[in-house]
Design brief:
The chain has six helices and one strand. It is mainly alpha-helical. The protein has one domain.
């Protein structure tokens, strides 16, 4: 298989990986909303009145991001939103670690418990890479975007180069 034929499939794999990360994160939080609310509260950064709305809304946003990436709808804007959220998560983790808080990161709700620190920050940077790649070069192989926009894949050779 030539490079030109392989790259769209690589892009699809990256997009589906990003979708899987966001779907897993959201669904695990939805499985125990009260536990996730306690994890958010432990960060001590949101006013008390915002802890519950944030805790109950964030998993829905994560599932929506995962769903949009899964079907390939609005890939670039969705991936940009995913990157913004990931930066917010990284800042929250870094400030908690810097303040010496011994708390669970809450990244995957109460399903995967990991104390905030260098390891969680590095892991989340790695988990953000597929979303960052989709923001840079949105993969549209087998996507809603391809059907609506007529663009097959940004990972294809010459992609991102607008015709003169």
């Amino acid at each position: 298989m030539r490079k030109a034929e392989l790259l769209p499939w690589v892009g699809l794999t990256v997009r589906l990986t990003a979708a899987g990360i966001w779907l897993f994160a959201g669904i695990t939080k939805l499985a125990d909303l009260d536990g996730f609310r306690a994890q958010v509260d432990a960060y001590q950064v949101l006013p008390h009145a915002l802890v519950s709305p944030f805790s109950y809304g964030l998993p829905l946003v994560e599932v929506a991001i995962g769903g949009y990436l899964l079907v390939g709808a609005m890939v670039r804007p969705t991936a940009i939103l995913a990157c913004v959220l990931m930066v917010i998560f990284l800042v929250a983790e870094a400030q908690a670690w810097a303040r010496g808080l011994s708390i669970d990161c809450g990244c995957f709700g109460t399903t995967v418990q990991t104390q905030v620190g260098a390891a969680t920050i590095l892991r989340d940077i790695a988990l953000g890479v597929p979303s960052a790649l989709m923001a840079w070069r949105p993969a549209r192989k087998l996507s809603v975007d391809a059907r609506l926009l007529g663009r097959e894949d940004a990972f294809a050779p010459g992609a991102g180069v607008e015709p003169a």
